[in-house]
Specification:
about 230 residues, Rossmann fold, Arc Repressor Mutant, subunit A, 2 domains
């Protein structure tokens, strides 16, 4: 009589691996402590600037990268900027299987839209309950986004406007205070072409004039905020 093969216990699922890129020691420690409470999550490393974070992500290829929106580019740079965090997320898009979640102390429709366009799976508020980070990591590890209902509403309204890249470029210059002739010179196009683009912009945004178009674009997240808020 043949003996039965020995029974083996099923292997535990592989942990969700994470690299954290956060330049604030306060938030970095808080996130590290929160992730340590979840046995299904393993924090591989933590970086304090974008260059260091990119090196670690390329080397370790974690499941999820937690990226501060406002980062320093590298060790030698003092000032942090939101464009640095967005650029890091764009780089991560080319590094499968890693998926990025952005973290920010402040937010709004403009930054939600830019985060989504860069390829982030969500933009979490740093003031959210600590367990929200763990929940988001589990969801994103499955390939699912973590936008809130409010954020999805902002994204849908911005999508409905459907401004072209050139229209957005012109609208940013209008918001900066440039007149049609100045915009034309800067972009190398005719003033009449600028006028046609502005007419299309006003129509899409249902705005009566250029000032109202800028205000509506800010509400929709088509332009960055001008309040200088830290992110």
């Amino acid at each position: 009589m043949m003996s039965e093969p020995p029974r083996t216990s099923p292997l535990p699922p592989a942990p969700i691996t994470v690299v954290l890129v956060e330049d604030s020691p306060f938030f970095r420690r808080g996130i590290e402590q929160e992730l340590a409470q979840d046995p299904a999550i393993r924090l591989l490393d933590a970086a304090t600037n974008a260059a260091q974070g990119l090196r670690q992500i390329r080397r370790l290829r974690p499941t999820v990268a937690l990226v501060d929106l406002r980062l320093r580019a590298d060790e030698g740079v003092r000032e942090s900027a939101p464009e640095v965090g967005l650029e890091l997320v764009r780089e991560i898009r080319c590094l499968p299987p890693t998926r990025a979640i952005l973290l920010s102390q402040y937010g709004g429709p403009a930054w939600v839209r830019r985060a989504a366009t860069a390829g982030a799976y969500g933009l979490l508020d740093k003031d959210d309950p600590p367990h929200a980070v763990r929940a988001a990591i589990h969801r994103v590890a499955q390939g699912l986004p973590v936008w809130t209902a409010q954020q999805l509403s902002w994204l849908q309204r911005a999508e409905a406007a459907r401004l072209t890249a050139r229209e957005e470029e012109i609208l940013e210059l209008v918001a900066a205070g440039l007149q049609d002739q100045e915009i034309a010179r800067q972009l190398g196009i005719r003033p009449g072409t600028v006028g046609k683009h502005l007419e299309s912009i006003r129509s899409k945004l249902q705005a009566r004039n250029r000032f109202e178009a800028v205000l509506r674009a800010r509400r929709l997240g088509l332009l960055p905020p001008d309040d200088g808020s830290r992110l």
